[in-house]
Amino acid sequence: MTRFYTILYGCIFACIIVTSNYAVQFNIGSSYLTYGALTYPFSFLFLDILSEKNDKKDVLKALRYGILFAFIPSLLISEPLIAIASISAFLVSQPLDVIIFYFFKKVLPKLWWLRNNISTIIAQFFDTMIFFHIAFLAEKGSETVFMMALFDFCIKIILSLIDTPFFYIFAIALKAKFNNK
Question: In degrees rounded to 5, what are phi and psi of residue 20?
Fold first, then answer.
């Protein structure tokens, strides 16, 4: 991955993070679910597509740029605690996703759907728990935070399963097409 693409991908991660940090401040109707649950899963899909096409070192570098580029804008558009919670969760969950993804890519190389979903679901569990506990525990209490995290995580699992065909199209099918030319 060239430096240009590393920075470009970092900017894409930053846009997803900043958008999600803003959106997580708003509940969908009167539910525990926030709009951030609908935007943030795109970061995992994007990460898995990058991981399928690039080496681990380059993907992790793009993640670091994303964190760097997202921090100040996140502080400006969201509550400081939300920005800190988001970056903390991102620092743990996204590298975890990469590690799990590459593990399954190595040991089960033909099961692309498994590495996409298992890595994302495990990493999103940690992301959700870290984020909601840092961002909302002091303000909303443990029962509300647990319900928010549970609803958020359930939506993330559903979206992870729904994004499987998109992972196939953008990571597997296009990779095969370009490798055959």
Answer: -70, -40
